[in-house]
Amino acid sequence: MIGQFADAVTRGVGDMTSSVTDVFDPTLRLGVTGLSRAGKTVFITSLVANLIDRGRMPAFSAGARIDAAFLQPQPDDAVPRFDYEAHLAALTARDPHWPEGTRAISELRLSMKVRRGGMLSGLRGLRTVHLDIVDYPGEWLLDLGLMERSYEDWSERALARLAAWEVPYDAASVDGAAKLEEPQAQRLARDYTAAMQAARTAGAYDLTPGRFLLPGEMAGSPALTFAPLPPGEAPRGSLRREMARRFEAYKRHVVQPFFRDHFARLDRQVVLLDVLGAIRQGPHAVEEMRAAIADVLSAFKPGALGWLMQLLGARRVDRILFAATKADHLHHTQHARLTAILEAMVKDAKARADFAGARTQAISMAALRATVEETREHEGRHVALVRGRVLEDGMPGREVALHPGDLPDDPAHILTPARRGARTWPEGDYDLVDFAPAPLTLRRGEGPPHVRLDRAAEFLLSDRL
């Protein structure tokens, strides 16, 4: 506790210089997060492209005041740069493809020359506003929930998760009270990682530790060589005692620095959720997503700060956008229902943030539109369809027009079976597929086509511009 307090004071003093600088060149730090397959990389790429060329951003009111937007070197030299150019090239190529997903933390700075508002705006000239976008893997996000858990609590929860998804992991036969043998510890860590991969493939979201799935430069380190074990004795030098020690080391050396260096410095947050992907996986996946995002949001520090506290370096997330991605996989007549389902899923987390003073909003969107809409007559009635190139084994396949099924008017028809542990939807599965990006022809001044990305930018940025 004392160490954390001292660290916070030291960090606050260090931030004062940048905070004073912000008075002249304001900086807004935007965190982009979400669970796996939510589309974080595409969101950032399309957002930046559409802030530079704002021809497709009619709902972004501040766009008219931006004279120029351009990329600059990021302020954090120790954080890799988000590879914007490569990702944009993938999406706009003659044969476009989805870019690689987020595998490590990265950052990008977009600077904007903005005309001032008010009666004397013509006399005050332009000001520069920096937008620092921080991207990090969704697999790391859930680790924040480990901060308040012991090894025993985490083990019980992790073993229960694997059992619920019927994923094999043989921990019951392991004698945790026996003397530590490093090869056995490494084998257990590999077996647990494989079990996590299998559970994720089946539709699981709440899988920790996240670095086991994306270890990066820490692969093979002791902090990543532990696994859950059933409860029992833990004498000195035993396997169970060492597993618990390494679990605490993981929190100390991986989770805490991540929270301190990145989470605690955010002003705005985007939480992207592939709600349609969870619905396709079934009720169990929907409930797991709902529970996971509630755990994640408890680690944020939402709320409003006065100008004096901002000047002194204190930062707090004051706006959170919840976005259901891939809305272009549905006809626009279904988008309101998708938004209602999202709002019901994040209700608890949203209420907590609202109570703390943060503004929240939920929308359905697509950072890059991959389909077009059409209506056809079938058996005497008009059917709303979406048409696009289906992904088959990760590659663009045939072009199809399909009606994935109508989402229910009442979100309870989705959430209630999920909470009750149903294995299938009472009214049948939804015919949801993954689409490949469509070839683009961009006119001068236009960014990539999207669905409601301008409304997302309006909520997140306009008040600061």
TrEMBL record:
One of the Pfam families matching this protein, by short name: DUF463
InterPro entries assigned to the protein according to its UniProt record, in alphabetical order: YcjX-like (IPR007413)
Top-level taxon of origin: Bacteria
Protein name: Putative ATPase
